[in-house]
Amino acid sequence: MRIKQIYPTYRQTRCLHYSQSSLALSSAKEHSPLVGTKPVNTVTLIPGDGVGAELMGSVQMIFKQIGVPVQWEELFVSETSSSRSASLDDVLKSIRKNQVCLKGVISSGHGVSGVSGELETLNMKMRRALDLFAYVVHAKSIPGLLTRHNDLDFVVVREQLEGEYSALEHESVPGVVESLKIITRGRSERIAKFAFDYAIKHGRKKVTAVHKANIMKLGDGQFLQSCEEISELYPSIALETMIIDNCCMQLVSNPWQFDVMVMPNLYGNIVDNIAAGLVGGAGVVPGENYSEDYVIYEPGARHSFHEGVGRNIANPTAILLAASKMLAHLNLHHFSSALSSAVYEVFKSGKVRMRDMGGQATSIDFTKAILQAIRL
Question: What whole-number distance in Å separates Cα of residue 189 and Cα of residue 213?
């Protein structure tokens, strides 16, 4: 089956970026006899805004060279370039059919969207339509990457369908805006259970529920109570509670104390970015979106890095690690392990370092180094 290509001009943009390196990459050693095998898994591919096309180019080049049995159904989706964007219906149809998606960052502008005054962003519409209630960021130190803190390994679980990101705002009188924060018991219990299930599955020992129930006594109070009640079903996992402002201080002063963290939407947005900063920045942390039926993999810190477009400086680590997690989800564990091991080997060797790693290597240099380090 041919890969669906809705916007050829967008693909040309990415191909132009990689034209200088295509010969070098194509001449790399063929690592696997599986190269050329008929693809058996179709995955929705959304490059996103900013450097997304360049980062996805790294993923696609590596997958092609090592023969990963995945074919892409690619759609250009953008809120800021809506005239070229696929429709939301087309995006949802593709993800519902394939059930797995690799996605770049879709930027959202400031203020209301478009002339209609719509408050709900494209990202919010996608998450709600697909019921992507859980966002997971695994903050783990990478040997060879110099950071202020070493040996970190904790997980942020964020509820991402309600809270402050409910798109329920109105101007009650001129100059007075009311924004509604929605906390429901059902969704609070669901994200708490997800966090505890994650802890059990991955051999974790503690879940920290992050809240502001001392001020928002009803909303955050209900979230906290839900976490406490769900924790009783998991006697082998300790529950800790922590106020969000104290949590931020603890993250930068003693991050080793955390294991699995669970929290409402806005707090999670803040904490997962702090977590990314602790282990090396937006370019090195993968993210995972879960519903009961679908999963979307993307960079863990959602920054499109528009200023890096076309400069060959965007770090592909986050999207490559996200792709590795996607391969594990598809039961392609051999390819998943080979890809992630190669990424970590390049970091550990220290021979190829990008600007955000303290070096001068380009995105293409880094991609070539990972490709050469893959062992199948």
Answer: 16
